[in-house]
Amino acid sequence: MKKAGTIIIGGMVAALLMASPAAAEQLSEKSVRTFMSYAWSLVPQRFTPPNGKPIIIDKTKPDEVMVPLDVAREVIRVGRLSAHAQICDMAEVQRDNYRSLMKRESLKDKWTPQQMVYISQLHLTTVMLLTGKIKVTVKDGDKEVVVDDGSKAKAQTCSDEQRVKVKEVIAAYVKAGPDLASNSKSAVKTQPTAKK
């Protein structure tokens, strides 16, 4: 019997995403699909938003819940910015970035509640991949994505210059989107938590 191996995600895909503002747009289709697959594995079967009405997700039907590749690429790009904000310890900026993404997608009025949960989970998965909170275990050739408690994650730092740049980029993104103060459409306001 083979011993389970562990791969900490943070390698080439994470390095590419952290490298430059345009990096997420340059992700290959295979990389985007990999992120999408990891996010799908962490999507809960049941999610209860603040309104209290449960959203049930049929995990046997990913094609009905996953979003198109171009939308996923944009969610990953925004998730990358949220990861930078988290690393730079800017919780409010990170929250506004996430809220702007979710409001934009909600206002499109084309996603089911299950797809909105998936979009939220893809954003969260991207943040967790880039901040070292997810690991992939391999056992007998099968990969399983699990949440890491972070005890072995290498601490990442943020310079003052990076902090200013992240804040500027997110402020521009939020400003270009819908007003976050208005509540014309409801979105998934609470990000789903990945199960361990």
List the helices and strands and how they pair.
Blueprint: E1 5-8, H1 12-19, H2 29-42, E2 46-47, E3 55-56, H3 69-87, H4 91-107, H5 113-130, E4 134-139, E5 142-147, H6 160-176
Helix pairs in contact: 2-3, 2-5, 3-4, 3-5, 3-6, 4-5, 4-6
Would you mind describing this structure in some detail?
- The structure is a single chain.
- The protein is mostly helical and 196 residues long.
- It has one domain.
- Helix content is 47%, strand content 10%.
- A three-stranded antiparallel sheet has the order 1-4-5. A two-stranded antiparallel sheet has the order 2-3.
- α4 runs parallel beside α6.
- The longest helix is centred in the middle third of the chain and has 19 residues, at 69-87.
- The model is unreliable at 1-21 (pLDDT under 50).
What features would you highlight for this structure?
single chain, 196 residues, mainly alpha, 3-stranded antiparallel beta sheet, two-stranded antiparallel ribbon, 6 helices
Q: How many β-strand runs?
A: 5
Give the strand order, joined by hyphens, for the main sheet.
1-4-5
Class by SSE composition: mainly alpha
| Helicity, as a percent range | 40-55%
Tally of domains? 1
Helix count equals 6
Q: Give the SSE string.
A: EHHEEHHHEEH
The CA-CA distance between the termini, in Å, is 24 Å
Sequence stretches where pLDDT stays below 50 over 5 or more residues:
1-21
Shape: globular
| Largest sheet, strands/sense/barrel | 3 strands, antiparallel
User: Rounded to an integer, what's the Rg over CA atoms?
Assistant: 17 Å
Average pLDDT over all residues? 81
Strand content: 5-15%
